Write the structure tokens for this entry.
Amino acid sequence: MSSAFAYRARDPLGAIHEGRVEAPSADDARRQLAVEGFHVLELDEESSQGLQLFGRRITRTEIIYATSQLAIMVDTGITLAAGLDGMIEQEQNAALRLVLIDLKSAVESGDDFSTALARHPKLFDRTFISLVRSAEATGSLGSMLDRIASYLRKELEMRNKVRAAMAYPMVMMCVAIAVTIFLLMFVMPRFTPMFASRGMDLPTPTRVMMAVSGSLTEYWYFWIAGIAASVVGVVYGRRTPQGMMAIDWIKIHTPIVGPMFRKVILSRSIRTLGTMVGSGVSVLDALQLSADVAGNCFYERIWRNVLDKVTSGSQIHEGLARNSLIPAVLVQMIRSGEETGKLDLVLQKVSGYYDNEVETSIKSTTSLIEPLMIAVMGAVVGTIGLALLLPIFTLSRPAG
């Protein structure tokens, strides 16, 4: 029986396409699109999307908790179907309960657990499914589910830390913009008539601020239209290869935050590669998934280049060598792992090392951004205040 899948994919020329394809499973849909020359970016089963209409949204935390719970049950000897049945009885989220019911039904009908999970690609990504498929082949599903939960937990923690680090500068920037608009639209216009009635020669900063204030108050609709057009342009620009490339370049090359983003991307890719290789997944599939989870087109291109070189007989460190975005120490550590035959252990250690590096980078980035944002906000407000005070000082000065 075929299912309908909504896809978003990139063609060989880099153009983004969206559409619908019918296939027995998500993997079949990906293979079908790959034959047509598409690289799949997003793939959602349309029939499974309706499951989230009941109750609230299924969060990543709930998926992690459910995976940990199932891992414990399977490890203690409970069958997969019985474990799913027990989770269904106590699950409070109606949407997740329907997903668990669907998984149990598929398992009881004879499907592999990985095949059942593939019916819900929006909840269980390719990394999750590949690890489960590897565990099914080796008979270690319980320990693998625990490992998957740990992997997902680290990913979520890292994402939350980055969001928390970027929240402060975003709030400060919004406050600075709001204060600036208030001063220019509501404070400056009150002084303009007084300056004009005196017929005095205003200082340059005051004339500039009065001009900006006048344009904001008289032509506010142009400003709103310009902001709206900019937002729409950014949103649609992100959907084009050129726009995605520009945004990704800015992320990893911006001073202060660029090094942090580079470490976050490397940590994510190395963690995925180490988890996959250590779980028995083939190196080629692990490299493919490392490219998929990179989240940056430049690093995705690096990993795909490594995949091509490994396919042709080279080693991973050879594909990563002499690349400005890959630290030389990382290449050396991976080379050591390949030469000693302990690549999975080395990758796990490297992943832990980069997790610590990301935490350190986040703290240092935050400590640099805070005074910088305060200085910027002080400079903006101070400039406007100076523009207001200079004429007042001139008026209060005794005539000589």
